[in-house]
Amino acid sequence: MPKYNFPRVVVTGLGTVSPIGNSVAEFWQSMMEGKSGTGPITRFDPVNHDTKFANELKNYDPLLHMNRKEVQRMDLFCQYAISAATMAVEDAAINFETLDRERIGVIFGSGIGGMWTYHHQMLNLFEADGNPHRISPFFVPMLISDIAAGHIAIRWGLKGPNYATVSACATSSHAISDAFMLIQRGNADMILCGGSESVVCPMGIGGFNSMKALSTRNDNPESASRPFDKDRDGFVMGEGGGIIVIESYEHAMDRGAKIYAELAGIGLTDDAFHITQPSEGGEGAVRSMRICLEDAGLVPEDIDYINAHGTSTPYNDKNETQAIKTLFGAHAYKMKISSTKSMTGHLLGAAGAVEAIASVMALKEQTAPPTINYITPDPECDLDYTPNKPAKHRIKAVISNTFGFGGHNASLCFKELE
Fold first, then answer.
1. Please, what is the angle between helix 171-184 and helix 351-365, to 10°?
2. What Rg, from alpha-carbon coordinates, does the chain have?
3. pLDDT tens digit string along 188-199?
4. Which residues of 347-359 are buried (b: 16+ CB within 10 A; e: fewer)?
């Protein structure tokens, strides 16, 4: 039984724009084909950067979801948010005219916000010899991380709880967690929640290069993101956005919504150890997954699949593997595990939402997505990472992990609706 007697929360809509697809259907199909979204950077000339590749969106057209004036007044991360939200609303078949908009919220975050906007406006300032009057009046509204949540609310007149979460790579998992708790305590009936990111820019790539966090496998970019592989050398930057629509079970039933899954539990912890490295043995991750299971009223043996944080960095993959083995014991070797970052790259603040969508689809399709580019096994990473090809598997409950700089850990549990 769940730890608390709160209303049940269910997932009724999904929307994403990602490096491997600009819809949920395309995103999932690419995963089933083991397709890499990695390629040469096209958004700027990376000639002086150590890493010259990333997971950019392909064939993305913001005008499918907004008009030209809106596009001009939104940073890319905000455009991705609107596109993902539009598709999620359509997928959930929401008719806002029949619902109480004061009971519908938006919790949507970005780990960094409008980095491209900052880049362009700083260039304006430099080119004008420091004249601040060259700074656009839209600079601040385009830059700030919370503006995406505001734009989504304005588009549909949603007047319930509305704010942004910012917790690095755990950002959108925290957005989903907050939305979950707000519905449980009766502050809203429905919430659009997730995150978006667009930092494939000179400072974004350069900054993570300076930290030695990115892969520099420039000779073979498509194989650069290789979570749990012995020869992993860092993560690959990605961009995009994801939203899930969650609502109380009663609200979903009243409006006749299709239900993908139940969001059954969350686990939120911090390592309190180091600003960038995970704690030894992944002890913070152990606690977040344990709390998540307790919140969902499940035991370790109930979990059939884990969508791992799996960044393709030496520390994360080893420590996450240790955390899974510590909590799940012998069952750790019976579960399917995968890092979909092997295909999408690391979407930073959008990672949790996009990977939550992958987890819900794994439940729906009874298939574990693969970890591609898994070539050389690492003795310290010895679990079943669903190497290179998807695997049909009986999946009744899943955990999706996201861990961020600052020691932030978030685990989400989705399960079949009973």
1. 70
2. 20
3. 999 999 999 999
4. bbbbbbbbbbbbb
Selecting among 346, 381, 408, 413, the annotated active-site residue is 346
Residue 169 annotated in active site: yes
Quick check: 370 and 387 in contact, CB under 8 A? yes
Interatomic CA distance for residues 64 and 60, integer angstroms: 9
Distance CA 359, CA 362 (A): 5
3-state secondary structure of 229: strand
CA distances in angstroms from 8 to 191, 193, 248, 249, 370, listed in the order given: 14, 17, 6, 5, 30
Q: How many CB atoms lie within 10 A of CB 186?
A: 11
DSSP 3-state assignment of 106? strand
What pLDDT is stored for residue 5 in this prediction?
A: 81
> Which one of the listed residues 49, 65, 151, 169 is annotated catalytic?
169
The answer to whether residue 309 is catalytic is yes
Task: Name residue, tokens 């009046």.
Answer: 137
Q: Which of 121, 412, 164 is nearest to 293 (CA)?
A: 412
**Measured at the alpha carbon of residue 253, what is the angle toward residues 252 and 254, in degrees to the nearest 5?**
95
Per-residue model confidence (pLDDT) at position 310: 98
Contact predicate 11/47, CB 8 Å = no
Q: How far apart are CA 265 and CA 262, in angstroms?
A: 9
Q: How far apart are CA 37 and CA 45, in angstroms?
A: 19
- Selecting among 49, 174, 309, 408, the annotated active-site residue is 309
Q: How far apart are CA 315 and CA 35, in angstroms?
A: 25
Whole-model pTM: value is 0.97
